[in-house]
Design a protein that fits this description.
194 residues; mainly alpha; two-stranded antiparallel sheet; single chain; 2 strands; 9 helices
Length: 194
């Protein structure tokens, strides 16, 4: 609230966004977004901005599919064996000017599988063409492939590295653990401190 009051005061004094940002130690884009988001009839009101922030942060958020008309249309299309992607695309075509009647396919999936134990599940339990009761993970089944092939662990490095007899081995530990993720590089040309 203190920062919002400072923004309001400096705006009233005619200061620019960059100057306000510098005085508050914030990015100019942050200040610009704050002003644009909470401007009412071309004036920034700190108290109104604070109230709107609390309202936006309130939980639980209303779900898009709680609207009766949209819910009925989505349910009908799902029972007609449309996929959630097809439903989302069809709604954009049928209602291009009405964002309240549009929904993303991810929101439909969330309503089927996640939100409130599947808020659409009772109405369209078997409507998905896949017939799945649970959502399939997006990554392939089985063990994940190794990120680094032929990686040599630090614990597996040659014993000669431990005694640091070769000048190239002096700072190999620091470089090996932070930069090359455990790879031992014998061609290092770092000289020991004198």
């Amino acid at each position: 609230m203190r920062e919002r009051e400072e923004i309001g005061l400096q705006l009233a004094q005619g200061h620019g966004v960059r100057r306000i940002a510098a005085s508050l130690g914030r990015a100019p884009s942050t200040i610009s977004r704050e002003i644009a988001r909470n401007r009412v009839s071309d004036r920034y009101s700190p108290s109104l901005a604070q109230e709107q922030t609390w309202a936006r942060a309130r939980r639980p958020k209303p779900r898009k599919l709680d609207g009766l008309a949209l819910r009925e249309q989505v349910t009908t299309m799902l029972t007609d064996r449309f996929s959630p992607e097809q439903v989302a695309g069809r709604l954009k075509v049928e209602h291009p000017e009405n964002p309240e009647m549009q929904v993303s396919h991810e929101t439909i999936y969330q309503a089927l599988y996640v939100q409130g134990r599947g808020s659409l599940r009772l109405e369209v339990a078997t409507a998905l063409r896949s017939g799945r009761v649970r959502r399939r993970p997006q990554r392939p089944a089985g063990p994940r492939p190794q990120r680094f092939k032929e990686m040599v662990m630090i614990s597996d490095r040659p014993a000669e590295v431990e005694d640091r007899a070769v000048p190239g081995h002096w700072e190999g530990d620091l470089i090996g653990t932070s930069r090359f993720v455990g790879k031992w590089i014998p061609e290092m040309s770092v000289m020991p401190p004198s």
